[in-house]
Amino acid sequence: MPENGLRKGEDGVCRCAWVGDDPLYRRYHDEEWGRPVGDDDRLFEKIVLEGFQSGLSWLTILKKRENFRAAFAGFQPKKVAGFGEDDVQRLLSDAGIVRHQGKIRSAINNAQRALELQQEAGSLAAFFWSFEPPQDERPEPVTWDALVANPSTPTSKRLAKELKKRGWSFVGPTTAYAFMQAMGLVNDHIEGCDTRQQCADARAQFSSPAAVG
Question: Could you confirm whether 31 is annotated as catalytic?
């Protein structure tokens, strides 16, 4: 890893160095990671996949994401919440996903809890965006050393606690913070990354569902 946490690709784009050279990972970094999301299905997909990622690399999950989407009914919480034992066995035999029984059952449980949360908060988006942290929680500028040293924050710990209180599983503070980074609740592209300002601009144009709700 370069000392400043940045790397310029052969395409001339300066990126967070953790991306590496894989084209799929680059597209994810450039087009998704850190951009604000207000769609409930996408939010549910990401928090479930963050749970599946535990103990693995995100690139492993990313390469299997389309298989996950097919296996989990597009990550529509209402559909996944209705999965039964036959579905668990189907998923355990699906070589295209991560076949971890605990994580599979957790995804179904979390879909059921997501429906409850939609009733409580109006939408998953309204709930999750109510955890957008104060700007001074992550000191500027964002550096590689700061990211490595702080894999969770007070807000991610609070989010994880609130989810666990509502019966969610595989949602610890580190997983919650990775979710916050990916969904644009924080902009952790390293200072100097070409995508950082794009994410900042996208956030400026985005209406927080928590504020709207």
Answer: no
